[in-house]
Amino acid sequence: MVEIDRRRGLRNLGRLLFGTSGWSYQEWVGVFYPTASESKLRHYTRVFPTAEIDSTFYAFPQKGTVIGWDRYSPKGFVFNAKLPQTITHEQLADLGPGIEAELDKFAELMQPLNNSGKLGCLLIQLPPSYKFNASHLENFLALLPHGYRYAVEFRHKTWMQETTWQILSRYNAAYTIVDEPLLPPEIQVTADFAYLRWHGRGQRPWYDYHYKDEELESWLPKVKEVESSAKTVYGYFNNHFHGYAVENCLKILKMLGNLTSEQEEALSRAQSHLGGVKDKTSGLGKWLQDKDTRSEVVRSLASLMGESRLARALEIPDHEVEILDASNKKVGAKIRGYNVIMELPSRTILHDCGDWERSMETRQLCKHIGRVLLTI
User: Fold this and answer.
1) Is the pLDDT of residue 302 over 80?
2) How far is CA 92 from CA 102, 132, 141, in A?
């Protein structure tokens, strides 16, 4: 049973530990964070008992960063961290010394959280291209470093079968129960803990979605069913756009009767701010709110920059984008300290961020250029 410091306004939630996927979103200032200057992690841990570390999917964390997560979170707080995509998406096909070394490297980095009892599990999010292969999955699970618990999230429907549940059960690995467009919310408890993720039901990206009350209510019997079969139930809302994840997570906790006074206050703040958030967008971002055009525009941008970059572009708030020039010949902008110049007649883009240099090799736009296009 996880104990939370009551002085921080949290109660002992026992077996249900719900939070959000990530917490360092600038867009949440006002909706969740009272000010931009306050430590986001410090405020987050006053309200939620757990967090999913999403940033580790995109890059291995620095050792000091992990130590900071441990040091600046209260006793009893629980993190769950995603394995880097270099392991789950790039090296998964070859189960040799290379991937084993990367797994050991990541496990060692997460050791401070594991030693302090603040690491619940490591989340293995597999790519949609990874189809059912029982022997490969079993061999991969056998490679995982000992001393950690694991949750596995599939993205292809071929894994929805009894053999999958049996393999996961043998390794005490939790099947990740999801709410998303690709797979149905299959309720399977394959470990002594359970793992749930609400991604949203948007088209592209999924995460720009606000769950309606009736959609959350439909999950109540599912959560209770899972709770009856697991010692601990971790649940995370990944629909982080506009702060929707905060409001939806707190709302379902209220429906379950697990809301603390501090969470009640946070829910009230989120609800009072969310009504005007979308109205702050402009340019193409404003146009995206129209359902008839949204799907086509987002699909086009996703093909030019990739879905993960598009998601990060949409997280950048309007006040961090300054359009200096916008004509039929040239667009000039400053965004988060970087310069963007688009010369339309010559079809030239000049930009000074490192991601742009890397993305040019794959002919994709970076998040800064994507966000400028959403603004003009």
Assistant:
1) no
2) 11, 13, 11
Provide the whole-model pTM: 0.74
Percentage of residues in the chain having pLDDT higher than 90? 64
CB 182 within 8 A of CB 155: yes
Beta bridge partners of 16: 233
> What are the structural domains of the chain?
6-278 (3.20.20.410), 283-375 (no CATH)
Terminal Cα-to-Cα distance of the chain (whole angstroms): 51
Average pLDDT of span 290-310: 65
- Looking at residue 318, its pLDDT comes to 66
Residue 154 has φ and ψ, to the nearest 5°, of -95, 155
- Report CA-CA distances (Å) from 123 to 26, 36, 167, 234: 24, 29, 16, 11
Nearest to 340 by CA among 313, 368, 360, 311: 368
Structure tokens of 112? 């401070």
Spell out the residues 6+ positions from residue 29 whose beta carbon is closer than 8 angstroms to its own. 35, 36
Mean pLDDT, range 195-207, rounded to an integer: 86
pLDDT single digits (tens) 56-101: 999 999 999 999 999 999 999 999 999 999 999 999 999 999 999 9
Q: Letter for the amino acid at 93?
A: A
Does residue 291 have a pLDDT over 80? no
Query: Are the C-beta atoms of 158 and 183 separated by less than 8 Å?
Result: no
